[in-house]
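TEACHING EXERCISE
Course module: macromolecular assemblies
Task: Read the component lines below, then compare them to the predicted structure of the full complex.
Student: A.B.
Group: 4
Components provided:
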Amino acid sequence: MTQLSGSRDIGQLKKQARTVRTEILKMLTEAGSGHTGGSLSAADIVTALYFCKMRHNPKDPVWKERDRFILSKGHAAPLLYTALALSGYFDKSLLKTLRKIGSPLQGHPCSKLLPGVEISTGSLGQGLSIANGIAMGLRMDGLNSRVYCLLGDGETQEGQVWEAAMSASHYRLDNICAIIDNNGLQIDGPCCDVMALEPIVDKWAAFGWHVIDIDGHKMGAVLDALDEAGTVKGKPTMIVARTVKGKGVSFFEGKVQYHGMAPTSEELGKALKELEDIDNG
Amino acid sequence: MGEKIQESKIKSQESAPPHNPPLGKGGSGGGVATRDAYGEALLELGKKRNDVVVLDADLSGSTKTASFAKAFPDRFYNMGISEQDLIGTAGGLSLTGKLPFASTFAVFETGRAWEQIRQTIAYSHLNVKLVATHSGITVAEDGASHQAIEDVALMRVLPNMTVIVPSDGIETKQVIAAIADYYGPVYVRLGRSKVPVIMPEDYKFSIGRAHRFHIGKDANIIAAGIMVAVALKAMGILKNEGVDAGVINMSTIKPLDNDAVLSAAKASGLIVTAEEHSIIGGLGGAVCEFLSENYPVPVRRIGLKDTFGCSGPSDELMKLYGLTADNIVKTIKEALKK
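Instructor-supplied answer key:
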């Protein structure tokens, strides 16, 4: 009944990441609003988790032994919804209802409305504390399930993130693997201009975390980092994934204005062609 | 059931002052601080249920969760001085089927972590029990920075949230047992100071049901928390002066016991609310909201009148802000003259 980790076929996973990006762009265009840049930047990471690394069962979203995924950067909801739909949690046609009245696909994820969403997020800085609590509970129950928590880099400007960083380390939560989607941009501009975050690796290491610094778009590197996290004992792991905001669509990449803007129909056409060309090439 | 109890309670309070000790640090009489009752109730609950986990934010000695921590160290998490993380972690634990009780001082729990409570606990309807101590001005000497006078308002406004303000140790124990059996987020407001024991030994609390000590024909006092004892005292004074005033212990502020409020309003036509909280947004606010739409009668609200508290001994602060039986009596008599 349980679904264990998917296949570790890197070519296949890269292709799946492109499919994920395609669906994200389509649903955002249909919705007419939403967060494009940060959904695309984390697409490879989330693909690696949902289609290879995580043990989960779309037919039984509350399976006790599942690995958990907490989307602390809740504005990347289109990415989570796509991963859930393509995994089989619900019909793909539902993606078209994003942000519409009566849809379970709220602008930011709501766990009361959509199976597979572990907890409602959207207000930044809160996911890691929740992930810690889940990790504590799993450990108390003697379960080996792992908890993955995806944060934005700008999000780590929230003080609560560092409270949670201390807690995970203090309670030696080695069943936690957090990932920072380090795309370097936030709404008002580059993070280094708005509120500098570097040295990110040193900061998390100083808080007692095992830190892995990777290119967040290299599928092999993402999988290796997730594997390594699973071997670390006595401390939580932070994967600092260096990413590009809007990754996969040349004219969205590195553009701060696409943080919270959906593609137009025209942009969608061009974007889908770019993604197709990679598949065909 | 209220009538007999009311008689005996008034008598005992009038004839035997030790049953109604001054509010304060020592409270040298037979009183029990609701936080002490909480500590005992948690311990009992912990013995009965393995899923109970307790979290605190470096105040376990004061909130009285320390005894649970000692008895069940594997089920206790001290989160340090970090209330936002406290709430999020409690939420996470509830997602694995645990029954978390998260405690710290009311001002920090509901203020510092309000948005975490909103986003994570209330919006997602998590089974987390927020039990805060040191509410109201009877925190006393520590002053306004530590005196939560708006916590009920902050919690009451949140969808999905249940808000309970126990009046004494007996009720606190009942409340803790009742909310453990209820699925959903609950805020329980407890105090630091010793308060008189006023609820009958055989009292059975249930969420959303007020305890009617007496329904008066001239006026009815709807009180919560430590103000229930004060209201009972006022009722006794008024009775001696020929005024038939009733007292309702509205320990569940949300959902409000509308029937009790309606009965009181219909019986007397004058309602006085009494709470150790701002008159805005708390019990007084809740009663006014209900009555104005359903059965408009004159209401007088006793509480902090849109002001912060200050440092001082509890009993002196209670006098300073009009949280006394004499002020309730005066308020009712003035209102009845009009």
